[in-house]
Amino acid sequence: MESQTVSLPMDAERQIAHTDRFWQSYRRGLPVVEVVTLEHHRLPQVECDVVILGGTLGIVIGCALQRRGWRVAVIERSHLRGRAQEWNLSRAELEPLRQNDLLTEAELETAIASEYNPARIGFYGGSELWVRDILNIGIDPVVLLHTLKEKFLSAGGHLCEVTEFKHLAIHPNGVAVQTDSQAKPRSAPLTGRLLLDAMGHFSPIARQARRGASPDGICWVVGGCAHGIPNCPHGDLFYTFSPCTGATQDFWEAFPARDGRTTYLFRYGDLSRPDHTFAQMIADYTQALPGYQQVAGDRIKLHRLLMGFFPSFRDSPWRSPWPRVVPVGDSSGLQSPLSFGGFGAMVRHLPRLTDGIHDALHLDYLGRDDVRALVPYQPNISITWLFQQVMCRQPQMVNRLLDLAFTQMASLGEPVYRPFLQDALQWQGLTQTMVRMAIADAPMILRIAAELGIPNLLDWFGHYVHLGRYTFLANYCSPGFEFHWQRQEQSWRYGAGLDSVASP
Ligand SMILES: Cc1cc2nc3c(=O)[nH]c(=O)nc-3n(C[C@H](O)[C@H](O)[C@H](O)COP(=O)(O)OP(=O)(O)OC[C@H]3O[C@@H](n4cnc5c(N)ncnc54)[C@H](O)[C@@H]3O)c2cc1C
Fold first, then answer.
1. Cα of 330 to ligand 1 centre, how many Å?
2. pLDDT tens-digit profile of 433-445?
3. What pTM does this model have?
């Protein structure tokens, strides 16, 4: 099972070098370019209701808004085409795509590339937990995006591919978007009433809004899809099979895919890790993969290689300093800093976002405070910050700690571990788990708490109190009809993990 015998795709070296160059430039700090400016004069005319920058998840919300009768334009730097690697989530999480009339049952089934059960969670030296119907559906992004794109175009949507966003001017009555297109040079800016930033983690608009702040945490991931690994009906959601020997703990995921088996290696850290390179991480991955999957290395043929990193900010989601601008998808920072389920997070928030944006357009509530209400604080996501900190600061403790946490969650049952695994952590389950953990291994919990320090613990405790408050309000306050009151009610529900996704 030698490392070099795992065969990599043809262009692997180029891909690794490219990602390493981008990572190093990101680590040093990407420049903050002023891409958004405020103008005081009115636009003579406004062409559409919503302009969406970035087509990957942009087309999902674009189609949903188009279905509500709004004129939508999508600007995509490249061709609007999903990546080859599947997005995993559960069937229940896909419901918003059907309910919002984006896909028919048959179209949804066509987009499902794989389905498996059960999945394993386990940590080195500990016990294993087997779960069902969590991250067990693989959606083919190529099929999904192609279907949505065709529907969008046939319903009269305006799509500009191979067109790069350059500048956004915000006027009192709309936005004007300047682009650069090799395909179709356009001198006049595209105008709309509202702008959605769906340009992902490295959006220049998000960078300007955050004033170039550095991320507080990073999750690096490498992996891909391989032939040659024997067909195995189960998957791994969160798995370690080795102790931490260096500065980071290795975590693994594995899923059956349409054309082989997908495996990922991921690690948590931050920008203070200049020694991280994707070349080294790929070498570690190919070395460990044969042992992990119990197959000789020379039988494994990786036909797709994926790598990337997910920056996360403690202060998330970013709240627009401007009127008429709403971040969606990875750009917003609404997703968990622990998982890389950005597609799942977007689909989960789709009903909330679609209703909110629809109401905002309908009522012409597009001022700064109005658009901020569409991207709410979520204590159940912010609270996971401390867990991210433990992963990156105390990797030696992680296996023991996670084993303890999941053993307690397993004994409390599915209503506790399911929301956690679906990034919809709930106050009651969290409280029960923490109490049990403290009883089961108080010395370890105290040691971790001491190493994290008072500021981190106070910050965490603040989110914990808000999580309790949001849970109470989501349960006992009835929804109202006024725009801001409705947004508030939704933010309590989502922020407390009490939206529908967590129910089996
Ligand atoms: C290895 C890996 C595995 C993953 N697995 C899962 C999974 O199993 N489940 C899950 O839910 N999620 C998963 N994700 C996360 C998921 O891929 C992302 O959350 C999702 O792609 C985010 O979409 P986005 O549109 O917000 O951002 P992006 O995917 O980054 O897309 C941004 C879009 O904006 C365009 N763009 C950027 N700049 C400009 C510009 N200047 N002008 C115009 N267009 C621009 C880009 O071309 C791109 O199309 C995974 C990610 C990776 C890397």
1. 7
2. 999 999 999 999 9
3. 0.95
